[in-house]
Amino acid sequence: MKNLLNFFSLLIIISLTFSCSDDSNNQIYEEENVVEKVMKSKEELNEGVIQKVFTLSDFEQYSKDKNSVVSKLSDQAKSEFIKSMKFREDGVITTAKYTMIEKELSPEENEAFWLLFGMSKQAYTDYHDFECSAPHNCKRLQDNICLTGC
Q1: Can you list the positions of beta strands (E) in the chain?
Q2: What average pLDDT does the chain have?
Q3: What is the pLDDT of residue 26?
């Protein structure tokens, strides 16, 4: 009887060990899976999009081009946008206010504008109301957008 009790106790301990281990492993696997999906979706948001504006100088060049969507903005909107821009140490634009752009451009023009910065329509929506607070780190900030240079 004692051997049978020991056997069942050992069996219970083993089954609990494996069930806890499986839950723990499953949880870790699920968390890794979620992170992987998020990273993949961020990459897919801008798939096929070629960024053309990296610096203030690039932006100013597009502003002078009469065929560019940037030239459709009022001087005031361009000035406000330029003042709101933040840059990395290497000069790449990371954050700017979007509200004046959204007000002055049609939805199609707005999409074309943000494509210059490497932002697809979906990425624009996802990074809308965020700013670049540190490299690869966007935090909530109304009226701003966290650009691909972050």
Answers
A1: 86-87, 93-97, 128-134, 137-146
A2: 79
A3: 54
